[in-house]
Structures are given as structure tokens and as C-alpha cells.
Specification:
single chain, alpha+beta, five-stranded mixed sheet, 5 strands
Length: 142
């Protein structure tokens, strides 16, 4: 198991992401995705993808869950789980990777599939060389 992330936390996150997927609004791609975010105090926020006929205005499940957590005053993100009903793992898009990285290079990203399998990476592994506050000469905004 990844450092500081228990098997129980991983399972709770994947279950929350799976349930969130059921709320997805994906009439154009027909690819519903769910995500769940774990806050330091073990609170979980979930979200789903919300599409728009103008594709650029759609929002991924990961960002929906992250924005919910932040809008409730939580910025200490420990992990993000992503679930789609596929045999493959659903990896976060570039925009989601950059948003996740905003909350720390050590945030865990759990990609789960419908076979009950999952992989865990840090966002630093998924987004090496990502744009950070340090590049701008500023401290982290978290």
C-alpha cells in the first residue's frame, strides 16, 4: 500500500467513486466517470463528469470532486480515486493532473477498473515537470 494510505481508505475511495459514477451526466460520450477525494481528516468528497454539448465546457469527475472539497473549505488533499466501468484503468486527463498537482506533488491517484483492480501513483509520477507555484517564485497556494 502507498505510504500513509490504508487499504480501507483505498476501498472507501473506490466505492465512493463507483457510486458517484452513477450520477454522471454523459449523454455525448456515454462514458460516465466517478471520482472521490480523500481529505486529511478522512472526509471524502465525490464527483462525476458533467458534459456539455460544447465539449470544452464539460467538467471531469476528478475536478468536480476536487472543487466540491475546496468549496467546503478543504485543501489538504491526500488522494483522488477515479472509476469508470471499463476493464482498463481510467487515467486523469492533463487538466485534471494539473489541478490535482495544485494540492501537492505527493497526492495519491488511484485508478480503478470494473474488475476490482487498481493502481496507485503520486501525481508527481503522472505529471513530471508540472507547472507549480515555485516556478512563478511563489509559495504553494494550499
Amino acid at each position: 500500500m502507498a505510504d500513509n494510505l490504508t487499504k480501507s481508505e483505498v476501498n472507501r475511495l473506490i466505492d465512493a467513486a463507483r457510486l458517484a459514477r452513477e450520477q454522471a451526466y454523459a449523454p455525448y460520450s456515454n462514458f460516465p466517470v466517478g471520482a472521490a477525494v480523500l481529505i486529511n481528516d478522512s472526509e471524502i468528497y465525490s464527483g462525476c463528469n458533467v458534459e456539455n454539448i460544447s465539449y470544452g465546457l464539460s467538467n471531469c469527475a476528478e475536478r468536480t470532486a476536487l472543487f466540491k472539497a475546496v468549496s467546503e473549505g478543504n485543501r489538504q488533499i491526500r488522494a483522488v480515486a477515479i472509476f469508470a466501468d471499463t476493464d482498463r484503468f481510467c487515467s486523469p486527463c492533463g487538466a485534471c493532473r494539473q489541478v490535482i498537482a495544485e494540492f501537492g506533488r505527493d497526492v495519491f491517484v488511484i485508478q480503478a477498473n470494473n474488475r476490482g483492480e487498481y493502481i496507485i501513483n503520486t501525481i508527481d509520477e503522472l505529471l513530471p515537470g508540472g507547472f507549480t507555484a515555485e516556478i512563478m517564485g511563489k509559495g504553494a497556494g494550499v
